[in-house]
Amino acid sequence: MTEAQYFPTTIDNPNNPLVDWDAWFAYENANGHQTLQLIDKYYFGSSNVSESLDDFMWNDAVDTILNYFPWYIKVKKDTQIKPVPIKIVQDLMKMSKKEA
Fold this sequence. Notes:
The chain is 50% helix and 8% strand. The protein has 100 residues and is mostly helical. The model has no long low-confidence stretch (mean pLDDT 91).
């Protein structure tokens, strides 16, 4: 896969994973988010496929996460993130569990 053009992140995380991975990851862990687990679940990339197909599979995984989990956004390197309070994310997660 070429360098990720887009990456999913929760709407409360003030850090861009494509710019400051360490700060983004620390926030993820501190708040119990599971973005990397979701990527692992939906991204079926492989070094055995063409780069364009792998890029397609990455983008499809990111879009799938956004479709299923409304507290995620897709960011790129130059995205200026305006985080919402974590309480909003927690409420969305609770509502999602009730609907399941």
